From TrEMBL:
UniProt-recorded name of the protein: DUF1272 domain-containing protein
Pfam family, one: DUF1272
InterPro entries: DUF1272
Organism this protein belongs to: Mesorhizobium zhangyense
Entry superkingdom: Bacteria
Amino acid sequence: MLELRPNCECCDKDLPPESGEAVICTFECTFCAGCAQNVLGGTCPNCGGNFSPRPIRPAAMLKKYPASTKRVLKAEGCGPARKVA
């Protein structure tokens, strides 16, 4: 089940569970759409994968399966993914 992380790992913007602005990679790294496109160029800096819109969990299911409250922020800052040779 998706964690629905509460913030952008790049800029720390709040991304509540109902946010249509949240995008995730296959490992659930979570970013706002602005950082994903404008800072990261559409590539996850952690795994090198692409981003998809994060699904919105229906309110009834959110009560039963709440979103994560653990904030993840890249301590070293956020920049474009490096190409691996």
